[in-house]
Specification:
With 253 residues, this protein is an alpha+beta fold. The chain contains four helices and 13 strands. The N and C termini lie far apart (42 Å).
Length: 253
């Protein structure tokens, strides 16, 4: 497994891409119109065909077309067979439509194959001609190598400012004597913006997973966690974005 670690570090940054079509959350523009089904179909087709997506977009709240295209290209370099799906999701409490974004892909380095799965719930706004705004509601990515190694991610989607909460990622099957290691780190806004690979320090795991209690910032925003689990049968790494809100009513938008 140690020989796989340098290659893994070069791939961990891909997890920070999420589904590689969205940026950090921003306030939704007033009286914004949702993106149409035709626009979602065109964006999905462009993502999967490798065409430049910037003609479909324009700069707006939470949306930088140039950076979105850079993220897509970076992800495809890491996972050449990456495929996106954009589907309507459950509306928010105020009736705003959401979009389910998923991307999956594989990469082979020597004898090791990595598999990426990323899922997001977002809102997309439109000026009529192009998509010009977006907000991230949920965001999680998982990178695996080796055996299936099913894991359970128990990290909340949203917490209150200053709240202490649990960040738990555990193997769903008994270790049966296997020695596993793991680590967790909070990704900084600078790392997310620069698509930098996090430096995760590993320690021996007890109880079949990684269990940590953390504290949310005192101001609204978000925290993004990167977790790495190393098992004799393979590696699992996950990132999860946690919204930090000031009011209980915002926990479930």
């Amino acid at each position: 497994m140690p020989g796989a670690m340098p290659r893994l570090r070069s791939l961990l940054a891909a997890l920070a891409l999420g589904a590689a079509v969205v940026l950090p959350a921003a306030p939704r523009p007033l009286q914004a119109a949702p993106a149409s089904a035709t626009q979602l179909q065109a964006l999905e087709a462009a993502l999967n065909s490798g065409n430049d997506i910037t003609p479909l977009l324009e700069t707006g709240p939470g949306l930088d077309p140039t950076l979105m295209e850079l993220r897509r290209r970076t992800l495809v370099r890491q996972f050449p067979d990456a495929q996106w799906q954009l589907r309507p999701g459950t509306p928010l409490r105020d009736g705003s439509p959401t979009v389910l974004v998923s991307v999956s892909g594989t990469r082979t380095d020597g004898a090791t194959q990595y598999r990426l799965e990323a899922n997001q719930v977002i809102t997309l706004e439109s000026s009529g001609g192009r998509i010009n705004g977006q907000t991230v509601i949920k965001d999680q990515s998982i990178l695996r190598s080796g055996e299936a190694l099913p894991v359970k991610v128990q990290i909340p989607d949203a917490v209150l400012t200053g709240q202490r909460y649990d960040v738990d990622v555990l193997f769903e099957e008994p270790l049966d004597g296997a020695v596993a290691a793991g680590g967790i780190v909070a990704l900084t806004p600078q790392q997310l913006a620069a698509l930098e690979s996090p430096d995760i320090q590993l320690g021996a795991l007890g109880g079949g997973g990684l269990f940590k209690t953390v504290q949310a910032p005192l101001n609204p925003g978000s925290q993004t966690w990167a977790v790495l689990l190393v098992h004799p049968d393979g590696i699992v790494s996950t990132t999860k974005r946690v919204r930090v809100v000031a009011d209980k009513s915002q926990l479930n938008p």
